[in-house]
Design a protein that fits this description.
Largest sheet: 7 strands, mixed
Distance between the termini: 37 Å
Shape: globular
Oligomer: single chain
Number of strands: 11
Helix content: under 10%
Number of helices: 0
Radius of gyration: 13 Å
Length: 117
């Protein structure tokens, strides 16, 4: 599966942003998806995930401020982020895995989110 992330940009503190990941290639429904982020000088960290049946998980940092969703018909996975903070500034990556692996083996190119006034 090929992943293409979009929707990054500049947002003000307290604002909202929606990222989208478009997947092409193999059967979309069979994949688990997640969003990760990497801030400058930091390691990549988990943001949230969504399973094949729609079950979701979020990092403690994003719980209550992020909503992840998937549209199997369109082949997209969205990440809506609210109440943005400067520490949310990072490159955001979408990733995918199959049921056969606990690790995410498919990655998009990343989209930059900058939270600043």
């Amino acid at each position: 599966v090929q992943l293409q992330a979009s929707g990054g940009g500049l947002a003000q503190p307290g604002g909202s942003l929606r990222l989208s990941c478009t997947a092409s290639g193999r059967e979309f429904r069979s994949f688990y998806f997640a969003w990760f982020r990497q801030a400058p000088g930091e390691e990549r960290e988990f943001v949230g995930s969504i399973g094949r049946s729609g079950n979701k998980a979020y990092s403690e940092a994003m719980k209550g401020r992020a909503t992840i969703s998937r549209d199997n018909a369109k082949g997209t996975v969205d990440l809506k982020m609210d109440s943005l903070r400067s520490e949310d500034t990072a490159v955001y990556y979408c990733a995918a895995r199959t049921i056969l692996s606990a690790e995410y083996h498919f990655w998009g190119q990343g989209t930059l989110v900058t939270v600043s006034s």
